[in-house]
Amino acid sequence: MLVSALIVAVAAFVLTQIAIFTTTIYLHRSLTHRAVTFHPLVAFVFRALTWVSTGIRPRQWVAVHRKHHAHTDTTEDPHSPVVLGWGTVQLKNVFLYRTAAKDPAIVAKYAKDLPATRLDRLLFDHALVGLGVLFALTMAVIGVVPGLIAAGLHFVLYIALSGSVNGPGHHFGRRTFAGHSATNLRWLTVLTAGEGLHNHHHAAPTSARFARRWSDLDFGWWVIRGLRTARVAHVRFDDVDALARRAA
Ligand SMILES: [Zn+2]
Ligand SMILES: [Zn+2]
Predict the structure, then answer these.
(1) Cα(74)–Cα(82) distance, rounded to whole angstroms?
(2) Ligand 1 centroid – CA 234 distance (Å)
(3) CA 166 – ligand 1 centroid, Å
(4) Ramachandran sector of residue 17 (left: φ over 0; alpha: ψ -120 to 50; beta: rest)
(5) Ligand located closest to 169 CA
(6) What is the CA radius of gyration of the chain?
(7) Which helix (H) or strand (E) is 68 found in, with range?
């Protein structure tokens, strides 16, 4: 019983981390902010992982997030804790996201550069198929019931942590850079592959590295740096301080 519970917990954690690394590296740092670009094969792997581990349509995620940056801390922000309160954003983040993502005007305005491709229409736009693949694979590896529980738990964790970046990540924690509500939260940084360095990110959105020093533990950046060493990633900017100074 204890072993089964441990297997479920580890599987859920691994699935959530796959989704989180894909979200921060591919959806966020690459597609949204163009801070890093990848070899087409690597980009395809990230695209497929996004499909199975989150079901998210990248053009929608990119549009909602670009709108968040364009209107941070205002009523136009799709998920502003300053306007709605951090608790509401933490709990309702997924609904706030879906409301904005389903608005074709937002997608048309903020994700012009990401039109739906043929492959999107054929395969990747079908979120339920992707999620079905994830459930099937997990059940095949660790068994039907444990697989169902682990995959389900993964979505709860992923949704909760995404809400934490947008809610508590704009309320609690330290602010290295002034001028916006975003904060740095160490526990969130460790659990979200660097996304908890949200204050740094808002100060320098086009930096592929969210950390200012290695001890900031920006694990997403560590993967990008590895891919750059393997010559399958091109980093446009990686210096938070320089970019923040330029923007100030
Ligand atoms: Zn933010
Ligand atoms: Zn961003």
Answers:
(1) 8
(2) 24
(3) 6
(4) alpha
(5) 1
(6) 18
(7) helix 58-70
**Rounded distance from Cα 115 to ligand 2 centre (Å):** 20
Per-residue pLDDT reduced to its tens digit, 43-83 = 999 999 999 999 999 999 999 999 999 999 999 999 999 99
- Nearest ligand, CA of residue 170? 1
Which residues does 148 contact at the CB level (< 8 Å), separation at least 6? Answer: 135, 138, 139
Question: What is the per-residue pLDDT across 170-207, written as a single tens digit (0 to 9) for each?
Answer: 999 999 999 999 999 999 999 999 999 999 999 999 99
* pTM (two decimals): 0.96
Asked if residue 3 has pLDDT above 90, the reply is no
pLDDT tens digit string along 88-125? 999 999 999 999 999 999 999 999 999 999 999 999 99
Cβ-based neighbours of 42, under 8 Å, separated by 6 or more: 227, 232, 233
Q: Which ligand is nearest to the CA of 162?
A: 1
Distance from residue 51's CA to the centre of ligand 1 (Å): 23
Domain locations in the chain as residue ranges: 2-172+218-237
